[in-house]
Amino acid sequence: MSIPHLVQLPLPTLAGLAYPRAADGLIHQCAWCRRVLDRAGRFRIWAERLRGEVSHGMCSSCAPLLRPAKQGI
Question: What is the CA angle 20-26-29, rounded to 5?
Fold first, then answer.
């Protein structure tokens, strides 16, 4: 199994523009890599730490790296 790349440079930024909001009205940003969910449903927009109406979760690239390894019983 290959390890996903954490950062795919160059990532687009939206400096000075509005970030896309999800159906719940929040901007979804990965708390680890700082990528923002775009309108296509992929974490491809890089941003500094956002504050305010933001939901900090985990993107699909960071989740496997931060999930504890399963141990056989």
Answer: 70
Domain contains 1: no
Read off the pTM.
Answer: 0.66
Question: Does residue 15 fall inside a structural domain?
Answer: yes
* DSSP letter, residue 50: P
**Strand 35-37 relative to strand 43-46: parallel, antiparallel, unpaired?**
antiparallel
Q: pLDDT of 32-50, one tens digit each?
A: 999 998 888 888 888 888 8
Residue 61 identity (one-letter amino acid): S
Range(s) of the domain holding residue 38:
8-59
